[in-house]
Every structure is written in structure tokens, then in C-alpha cells.
Request: fold
Amino acid sequence: MAGTCELGLLLALLLPVVSASLPGTMVRLNKAALNYVSEIGKAPLGRALQVTVPNFLDRSGEAHQSTRIQILDVHVPRLHLKFIAGFGIHMSATANFTVQVFCVPKPLEMVLPVVLLADARVAQASIGTPEVSISTCFSLFSPVTVLDVSNSTSPSLLLLVRKHIQAVLSNKLCLRISSLVQGLNIHLGTLIGLNPVGPESQIRYSVTHLPTITSDYISLDVSAVLFLLNKPILLPGDATPFLLPWPVGTGAMATVVLSQHMFDSVFLLLQKAGSLNMDITGQLNSEDNLLTTSALGWLIPEVASQFPEPMPVVLKVQLGATPAASLHTNNATLQLQPFVDVLAVSSNSAFQTLFSMDVLVNLSLQLFVSKTKLRGTTSVLGDVQISVAASNVGSIDMDQVHILMGSVFEKPLLDHLNALLDMGIALPSVVNLRYINPEVSICEGYVVISSGLSYQH
Reply:
């Protein structure tokens, strides 16, 4: 992974940057991805080419004779796609049409091989998705192979039927390919759908520029916008712009680059949604419950004086400052600065503030990909720093309280935060597409995800 990050820094110096601040996300698909599409695309292409051939009307005799023709099967043994630099994709395919001709006295079956050639332009649609359109398309026909050599159909009729079939296919095959591409565009349109992040928050991706296409890959600049209650989450105006380097070539089908801006936006969303706020309580009847006034009373005499009988204590955790994520080579960290009110339940069931604390927690952030989501988990780095912000119970010996608060605060905070991060953030994808065998590399100011792809019907 270190080599990936170092190469990325080198490319950042040698190659032009693609954006500042936004889009903050880039997706690159290489030849391996195109080869995968070629393999899984054979069956859909074969189905798309299953056209209807009208009856052949033989006008050579005195009485016109109609011959029914049916395509029994279309097998695509070869489909090859390659990038056309600055334009799009070239397609070449071989399709074998098994055709039944209902001749008299005996039906005839034959195989007609066809080579299909097409060029497709890849552009940016007005709705913010990639858009594919066929610019040129034509078909080349090979001689037919009659499956039953004993069939007595006259060669002249066979020639006329073959010409009839070729004329029909010449008109219809490219139309079917164009129709297949239109269906692909509808599928690509699912890239811009809203994906939930939490109960009232979503993320939406869209392509912001024309794709960059070389003979080796296609790159898409992608904007990621997060919404809370249908309103976009925007970073403050003084946020430092991030220059996104050209994604590194790892050999994986797909490379996804996520900038610092993306992570800043995600944690700003979690803060504004209140997802990071929490209440920490203990079981009053539990023997090892430290969240009681009696436990605090051993350390703070005024608490013992005000609460002679054990009462529950609640830690009300609120995050005023936005969590700060830092991305460095092979190292991601997260800093939280929660404000904690220590409350006790009085005899009349009302909450009474005992004291308040400023807390500083540094966390190690581990990232991984599952299906189409970037997920994470955290662990505490060093000591949790605690200081008294205000007190209604006189002076407090923080050395003693620090030990107690650290033990009751740290685990619930980690459990809560890890549950949030495990929900994950949807990565750029379309319906039924999954990332497989992904590798996550942490680099200076950005994250690289290198992955294979799997399309599940």
C-alpha cells in the first residue's frame, strides 16, 4: 500500500490535477473492467439480437410461395471491447444465428455467422451520468452452414432465402445494438440515485465533466453531495481546497479515489444530524455499575452530601465541534471533542447537572469496503483527555475522576461510533454492481480503493 501512495504523490507532481474541492471523487475503469464487461455481455447481446424474420415470398414461379423463417438461437462466442482514446469504446463481436427455414417437403436448419462492428461515444448526460451512443455500426456476413446435408432444398432457393435473411438482419441488428445501449444508459442512470446514510440523510453522486478516455482506461470526475433533511451539507467557505491527483494504476478493474473533502463532509453530516450525540447510562442494580452517585461520592464529597441514597448518573455526550479526520500515508486518524454533562436523577426524578467536562479523544481509523459501501472501525489512541468545564459540586480532583470517567466513557463511545461507521457510506455504483476483493490504501490527503467488480443479475 505504501508504494501505491508514493506513486500517487509522484503523479500529483507530474500530471495535471482534475479539480479543486469538488468533485473530490474519481472513478477509473481499466482494460480489465472492459474485458469483464465483454464476458458478461455475451448473453445479453445474444438475447438482443434475437430478431423476427418475416416470411420469404418466392416470386420466381407462377404461384408466389411464402416460406416461414425462424431464428432458433443466437450464440455470441466472441465479444471484444476496447477503448478509443478521446472518444469512447469500439465493439467487435461474432454471432452465430441458427435459423430454421420451413421448406417443403422438409424444414431446413442452417447457421449464419455474422461479425458485428460498432463504435460508441461515451459522453456526459445532462442528468449527470455517463451516456453511451452508437456512432457507427455495420455487420459482415459469412457463408451459411447447412446442418442437414441430406436436405433436398434447391440451391437457388437457399441462395434467395440467405439474401432475404441477410437483408433483414442488416436492417435490424444495429437497431437492436442501439436499443441495448439505451438500456445500458438507463442502468447507468442509477448512479445518481440517493443512497441513505442515516434515517434522515442521503448521499448522491453525479458526473461533473466529460469522461477522460485513453487507450487504457476511462476516468470519471464524480461529485458527492450529502443531504440532511433534503438540504445539502456544505463545508465552510474557508475550507482548504483539495487538489485531487490522477488516480494511480493498480491493475484492479476499478480505482476509486476519495478526497479529504469527502471525509470532512461525511463527519460534518454526522455532527449536524446529531448522530454522534449519545446518553451513557448504567444499570443501578448492577454490582459493577460505576454510574451512580455513590460511586462518584467516593471521589467528590459534595456528591455524597447531596445524594445520601444511590441515584443513577447519566453522561450526556454532545459533539459541538466537527470531528476532524486526518489522512496520512498508511495512517488515518479521527479526533473528537465532545462536551459531556454529568447528570444525576434526583428524588423527584428530575435531572440535576453535577458537573460538565471537555473531552478530547484521538482515534485510529481503519477503513474497509463491503459490497458497495466504505465502512470503518475505530480504536482509541493514547489517553482520553478530560478537563472540568463547570461544576455544581465544588472542586473536583480530576486525577481520580479521570480514571472513573475514562472507564465508563470510552467503551460506550467506541461502540456507538463503530456502529455508525459500520453503516457505511455508499460508493459510486449502479444497481446490481458490487466491489469484490477491494484493497484500501490511505495516502496523504486522500484514500484509494482498488477493486474488482461483480455484476449480479
Confidence is low (pLDDT under 50) at residues 6-23. DSSP finds eight helices and 25 strands in the chain.
